[in-house]
Amino acid sequence: MVDTGKLKAPSDWQTERNPVTVAVIGKLGEEAAELSKICHRATIQGIVGHDPKNDKPNEDAIFEEMADTRAMSILAEKYFGRTIDPERVAEKLAHKEAWLKLIRA
Predict the structure, then answer these.
(1) In a domain, 2, yes or no
(2) Domain for residue 55, yes or no?
(3) What pLDDT, on the 0 to 100 scale, is given for residue 8?
(4) pLDDT tens figures, 17-73
C-alpha cells in the first residue's frame, strides 16, 4: 500500500497554449535532440564514421546540427527577449577547457 503522506502535492502546471512559444521551444528541443543523436552515433562509430543512410561523415553532421541548434538558440533568445547568461557560458567554457586538459594529460 502506498503511503500517500510521503507524496508531494501535485503541481498545477498547464500545457503551454501559445502556438508560437510551442513552436520555438519545440523546435529548439528537436534540434538539441538531433545534435545529441549524432554525438552518440559518433561516439559509437567514431568521429570519422559515416551515416549509413547518406554516407555523410559524422563530423560534418555534428557541425550541421551544432549550427541548427545555435540558430534555434538565437531565435529563442530573440523570441523571449532575453539572452543566455554570458557569465554562465564563460564559467562553463573555462570548466570544460580545464577538464579537457586533464583528459589530455
Answers:
(1) no
(2) yes
(3) 85
(4) 999 999 999 999 999 999 999 999 999 999 999 998 999 999 999 999 999 999 999
* Distance (Å, whole) CA 34 – CA 40: 10
Q: What is the pLDDT of residue 7?
A: 83
Q: Is residue 61 part of a domain?
A: yes
The set of cell numbers assigned to 78 is 530573440
Does residue 1 carry a pLDDT above 80?
no
Could you please report the per-residue DSSP string of 4-29?
GGGSPPPP-------HHHHHHHHHHH
DSSP code of 50? B
| CB-count exposure of residue 50 (10 Å: 0-12, 13-18, 19+) | middle
Position 31 in a domain: yes
What is d(CA 49, CA 90) in angstroms, rounded to the nearest whole number? 31
Name the residue range of residue 60's domain. Answer: 18-104
Within 8 A by CB and 6+ apart from 72, the residues are 24, 27, 28, 31
Q: Give yes or no for residue 6 having a pLDDT over 90.
A: no
